[in-house]
């Protein structure tokens, strides 16, 4: 098979997967709206930070907080990952076996589902952004197309970091029935160190340095800070993101291969 | 219908049976205890760290001292533990029963259906959170230099109970709407994230939100008001309001349940 044929085939598969998953997700748009609404935490944190004397003492104005938390809200919406729960359910209900027979690595089905879900979220997120900007006009990001494009790129890479981290945990489903419990543990540092509750700039220096070298900063802080126009070390930020991706991709391949070899269907 | 006292005894006896059975089931997963302990400690450390950011450079949050704010955070943790112990397992089950049509069997049982769906099971894994929350609140009260007398302690306990009842009503009403909307479980995630408001004292929020959190979504009565009571500075009017809101929301949950049941048509019909 030539390269162009392979590419055409990949495109056909991707298109079919994305379109079918999108149709599936549209069925559940009410549910997805509720998921979207459950990500309103950054707005509440904005409400607290904008009035907190500690924010002003750290040298951040209410407008800066508004821009940061609006960006954090958007980034969070498009980096949320739930592959471990979907996989665990498929595994427990015995849906995994027929899926494994398909001549397509399973991961792409879940990736397509996530991307389709993000597309379904898009209008809800747009409404939330418009609502927030109407209430707090200062939240509008500075019109800097380069920075915004970089922020979009960082956001999508952040999604991949989150996805691959959770997918690695998901692969432990092959060994244990409680992989989602492990995910619960991992979600804790991700909540507190990603910058969702406070920009990393207000953290004590030691914690901030650790967070900046963690995958959590790649998931939220880097794209949010980029979009909100705050000061950021671009090279170091993207380097951190790519370093984690370089680590996570081989790790996922190894775990997947070892896991599939162990797979013996539920109840067998 | 049997006499009230006998009925009550029967309910309590049944509940004890249910709970020992669910405990036996959960004991199959002992590794969970370790995971839950780690999760509770991690969450607590993260929450305290986040709270401490507001106290950098000697600043205060909403006029509350660091120790007093710890009481609020402790009560939040305690209530979150109660959610994991009772509300989430039971009301999650309710949503599933509506989806699968097995709610029919519950309605046929000679047992109050609201009590059944609310208290049928429990999960021991929320207990560490309850204990840690209570300890944190205790530490906050102690370090604030408050030594509550028995009477104010009793009042504080009443306020905490009101908070629990309000929390229950919020969860229950949401879960009960699954009778109309079926797939509603995600809505509890919205509720959980909104309840996160209770991590900080009410005065940390702007005025417009304060109004919202005392009336439409009475989160103030979950943590801030009980914390004020524990610190011995709650005013009688707040206490009365808290009790009134608790009773109202409990009555509201009953009303919604009856209304929902009237609309219940079982699965696939």
Task: Give the overall pLDDT of chain B as a whole number.
Answer: 87
- The geometry of chain A reads as globular
Number of helices of chain B: 12
| Fraction of residues in H or I helices of chain B | over 70%
β-strand number of chain A:
0
The biggest beta sheet of chain A reads: none
Gyration radius of chain B, in Å: 20 Å
Query: What class do helices, strands and sheet pairing of chain A give?
Result: mainly alpha
Count of helices of chain A?
13
Class by helix and strand content of chain B? mainly alpha
User: Which percent band covers the strand fraction of chain A?
Assistant: under 5%
User: What count of domains describes the coordinates of chain A?
Assistant: 1
Q: Report how far apart the termini of chain B are.
A: 31 Å
Return residue spans of chain A where pLDDT drops below 50 for at least 5 consecutive residues.
Answer: none
β-strand number of chain B:
0
Which residue ranges of chain B are poorly predicted, with pLDDT under 50 across at least 5 consecutive positions? none
Instruction: Give the ordered list of helices and strands of chain A.
Output: HHHHHHHHHHHHH
């Amino acid at each position: 098979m030539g390269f162009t044929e392979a590419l055409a085939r990949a495109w056909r598969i991707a298109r079919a997967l994305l379109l079918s998953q999108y149709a599936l997700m549209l069925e559940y748009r009410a549910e997805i709206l509720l998921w979207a609404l459950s990500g309103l935490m950054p707005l509440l944190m904005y409400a607290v930070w904008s009035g907190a004397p500690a924010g002003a003492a750290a040298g951040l104005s209410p407008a800066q907080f508004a821009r940061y938390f609006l960006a954090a809200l958007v980034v969070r919406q498009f980096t949320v990952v739930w592959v471990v729960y979907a996989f665990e359910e498929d595994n427990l209900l015995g849906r995994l076996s027929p899926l494994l027979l398909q001549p397509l690595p399973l991961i792409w089905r879940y990736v397509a589902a996530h991307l389709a879900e993000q597309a379904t979220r898009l209008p809800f997120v747009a409404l939330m952004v418009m609502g927030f900007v109407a209430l707090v006009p200062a939240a509008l990001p500075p019109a800097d197309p380069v920075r915004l494009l970089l922020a979009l790129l960082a956001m999508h890479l952040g999604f991949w970091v989150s996805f691959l981290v959770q997918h690695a945990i998901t692969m432990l489903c092959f060994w244990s029935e409680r992989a989602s419990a492990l995910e619960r543990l991992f979600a804790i540092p991700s909540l507190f160190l990603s910058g969702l509750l406070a920009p990393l700039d207000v953290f004590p220096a030691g914690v901030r340095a650790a967070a900046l070298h963690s995958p959590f900063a790649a998931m939220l802080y880097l794209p949010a800070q980029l979009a909100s126009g705050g000061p950021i070390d671009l090279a170091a930020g993207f380097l951190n993101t790519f370093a984690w991706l370089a680590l996570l991709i081989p790790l996922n391949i190894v775990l997947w291969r070892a896991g599939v070899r162990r797979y013996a269907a539920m109840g067998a | 219908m049997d006499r009230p006292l006998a009925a009550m005894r029967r309910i309590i006896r049944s509940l004890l049976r249910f709970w020992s059975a669910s405990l036996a089931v959960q004991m199959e997963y002992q590794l969970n205890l370790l995971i839950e302990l780690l999760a509770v400690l991690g969450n607590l450390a993260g929450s305290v760290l986040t709270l401490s950011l507001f106290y950098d450079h000697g600043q205060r949050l909403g006029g509350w001292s660091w120790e007093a704010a710890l009481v609020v955070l402790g009560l939040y943790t305690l209530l979150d533990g109660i959610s994991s112990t009772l509300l989430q397992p039971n009301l999650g089950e309710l949503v599933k029963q509506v989806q699968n049509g097995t709610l029919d069997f519950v309605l046929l049982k000679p047992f109050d259906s609201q009590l059944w769906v609310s208290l049928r099971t429990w999960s021991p894994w929320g207990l560490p959170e309850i204990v840690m929350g209570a300890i944190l609140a205790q530490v906050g009260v102690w370090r604030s230099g408050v030594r509550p007398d028995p009477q104010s302690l009793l009042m504080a306990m009443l306020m905490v109970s009101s908070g629990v009842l309000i929390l229950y009503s919020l969860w229950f009403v949401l879960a009960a709407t699954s009778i109309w909307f079926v797939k509603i479980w995600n809505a509890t995630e919205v509720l959980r994230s909104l309840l996160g408001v209770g991590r900080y004292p009410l005065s940390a929020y702007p005025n417009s939100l304060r109004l919202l959190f005392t009336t439409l979504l009475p989160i103030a009565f979950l943590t801030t008001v009980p914390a004020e009571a524990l610190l011995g500075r709650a005013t009688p009017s707040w206490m009365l309001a808290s009790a009134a809101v608790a009773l109202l929301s409990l009555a509201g949950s009953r009303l919604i349940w009856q209304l929902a049941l009237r609309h219940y048509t079982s699965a696939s019909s």
